[in-house]
Design goal:
mainly alpha; single chain; about 0% strand
């Protein structure tokens, strides 16, 4: 893993990729710092940090588009997949390299609140909390970009697909305001999830009896709950999106609330996409 990590870090700083990411990130964050804090004489840096989370939509595809697609372009993917290195070591090494570049860039932006502290009093722990949430939010987006880069051999396709996926995550909080909140819609939504899980289980374990059996049990429990505890289905779609929303969880950090469950959620989210990336490479190794 360390060998992959060193190689990726060297690639980031021996090519233009790392510098483009850092330059774009610092340029936009500096612009918002100047407008929101310097020109308006506001010490609320945590709100500025919250305003620039949209940077991830463009910065993360730049950072992750070459992570695995580059191996196919340079014809080194087969060499890497047949090497003694474990797939988990390869994937985690590439993920950590992107995270380290992001972390270094984030450290540079710490100069902004330090400058503010020279001219007034800033909310120190609120700012620290906002940085912690911002870091975990960025790591989650990087994990998505890493996974998408494993699905294609074209860097442009990887960048556009990552942008589209992150945009979908971004607009989830807006879309929920037009979604139905009645019990019947919630019931149909739960049934769709149960069927989806059963289908995923079938393609994972290739056992039709177990998949169908667990699916039927899930449907029976859902129908029973609909008639016995129907209030459970009210606004369940909105609650579901709120629970899974990466942006919604970041908002707690931006107002100074350190929620351990959100940290665990971000780490689990990263682990899930790293696991999916390993499975994709594992399938490619034996194909």
């Amino acid at each position: 893993m360390l060998a992959v990590l060193k190689k990726e870090l060297k690639l980031y700083f021996s090519t233009t990729t790392g510098y483009i990411f850092m330059g774009f990130f610092l340029l936009l964050s500096g612009f918002f710092f100047a407008v929101s804090n310097v020109l308006s004489a506001s010490p609320q840096y945590s709100s500025t940090l919250g305003s620039i989370t949209f940077i991830f939509l463009i910065a993360v595809p730049i950072l992750t588009m070459r992570l695995i697609t580059e191996e196919a372009k340079q014809k080194t993917d087969q060499l890497l997949l047949t090497s003694p290195l474990t797939l988990s070591g390869i994937v985690v090494g590439k993920f950590l390299a992107a995270v380290i570049v992001f972390f270094i860039t984030l450290l540079i932006t710490c100069l902004f609140p330090i400058l503010l502290s020279f001219y007034g009093t800033i909310a120190l722990w609120e700012t620290v909390g906002a940085y912690v949430g911002f870091f975990f939010l960025g790591c989650s987006f990087i994990a998505v970009g890493l996974f998408i880069s494993s699905l294609t051999e074209n860097q442009f396709v990887a960048a556009v697909s990552t942008f589209s996926a992150l945009l979908l995550v971004w607009v989830m909080d807006w879309v929920k305001s037009v979604l139905p909140t009645d019990k019947l819609a919630g019931f149909i939504f739960v049934l769709a999830i149960v069927v989806g899980i059963a289908v995923w289980l079938f393609f994972t374990i290739r056992n039709i009896f177990v998949s169908v059996g667990l699916g039927l049990i899930g449907i029976a429990v859902s129908v029973f709950a609909y008639f016995k505890y129907s209030s459970f289905y009210e606004r369940i779609i909105v609650r579901f999106i709120d629970w899974f929303s990466l942006i919604k969880r970041y908002q707690e950090f931006s107002i100074g609330i350190f929620n351990l469950s959100s940290v665990v959620y971000y780490l689990t989210f990263c682990f899930a996409f790293i696991f999916l990336t390993i499975r994709v490479l594992e399938k490619r190794r034996w194909s």
